[in-house]
Amino acid sequence: KTVSSRPHALAQCRNWLKAHLPHASLNDASSTAMAAKIASEDESVAAVSSIAAADLYNLRVLENHIEDTPHNLTRFLVVGRQDVKETGDDKTSIVFAINDAPGALYDMLEPFAKRGINLTKIESRPIKTRAWEYLFFIDLDGHINEKRVKDAVDELRKLCSFMKILGSYPKSHGPGEPSLG
Fold first, then answer.
1. At what angle do helices 104-113 and 147-157 cross, to 10 degrees?
2. Strand 2-5 relative to strand 25-28: parallel, antiparallel, unpaired?
3. What are the tens digits of pLDDT across the range 128-156?
4. How far apart (Å, rounded) are the C-alpha atoms in residues 89 and 181?
5. Exposed/middle/buried for 62, CB within 10 Å: 0-12, 13-18, 19+?
6. Model pLDDT, residue 35
7. Are 36 and 59 in contact (CB under 8 A)?
8. What residue spans of 2-146 are helical by DSSP H?
9. What are the angstrom distances between the C-alpha of 8 and each of 28, 61, 87?
10. Contact 180, 88 (CB under 8 A)
11. Measured CA distances, 48 to 96, 102, 113 (Å)
12. Can you list the positions of beta strands (E) in the chain?
């Protein structure tokens, strides 16, 4: 009767749910694990969750691979207080804000481009308390302890009204790809 999960998970499975459970109500949960817990307590509820959550709550997997886009990936992070050592195959994530001005986007990308650092992800999110200002999230190839990465980040920092290095970590590789971390 009901399918529960995080809103993003439900959205990523919208076509399958519409085709196979058109009359089920969709209920948002705080996490996919919480959705599995809810399903374990109410047999009228199914959950879109991981197999690990299904195992944890002794649920039967009814269907696998229900995502609308098979190549869509969700990232999970392990957060800690210790820095991760370089592996030689790392990524670094940074969040920062710059003042809105002509050429600001170019200025923030230039320190990385001139050092040959690949930016693998760039996202912007509006700062809710200030109109026309944004937080930028970037992922880049390399570890913050590498000289060229550190130099690029230091140069960018001079342009920022706010910056935080979220961390460096071993790159994640898809199935069948080698990982050094």
1. 160
2. parallel
3. 887 778 899 999 999 999 999 999 999 99
4. 8
5. exposed
6. 96
7. yes
8. 7-12, 14-20, 32-41, 51-56, 104-113
9. 9, 20, 32
10. yes
11. 33, 44, 41
12. 2-5, 25-28, 45-47, 90-98, 119-126, 134-141, 160-170
Q: Which residue in the list 2, 32, 69, 74 is annotated as catalytic?
A: 74
The answer to pTM > 0.70 is no
| Residues recorded for the chain | 181
Annotated active-site residue 162? The verdict is no
CA distance 104 to 109: 9
Active-site residue (options: 2, 32, 76, 137): 76
Annotated active-site residue 76? The verdict is yes
Tokens of 50: 């991981």
Task: Dig out the tokens for 120 from the structure.
Answer: 């693998």
Q: What pLDDT, on a 0 to 100 scale, did the predictor assign at position 135?
A: 93
pLDDT at site 134 = 87
Counting as low any pLDDT under 70, the low residues of the chain are: 74-77, 173-181
